[in-house]
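Researcher: Watch the backbone:
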Amino acid sequence: MFTVKEIQEAHAKVKSGADFPKYIQEIKKMGVTGFETWVKDSHTNYLGSNDFSVQSNPKYDDLTISDNLNKEEFARLLKIHQQGETDYFTFCKHCAETGVEKWIVDLDALTCTYYDKKGDLVLTEQIPS
């Protein structure tokens, strides 16, 4: 199976949202089938086959997630991030400010789905392959 260290080495190559599709392909080859990332501190639960899972440690001090979801602003900031204009931590701050609590990536379906604090779906995107 895979380790958090291997995943972190792949993630270290990601400088902006523009690098995300390559990262996804790399961890998929390791056997990752999906993951759930919490914006509050960026800890992530990585899933593999046969109920295998590992969890990363927090990457930064806790951010406060807004109670007020702003879908339009989130979508705008996500596009900016995907175009390579912001780094990962800035993107996480933008998620917190706009009310996004977490995202779940399904590597089989190649989707990334964002959720608010209530657990309501905010946005689902197809990941370019």
About this structure: The CA atoms of residues 43 and 84 lie 22 Å apart. The mean pLDDT is 94.
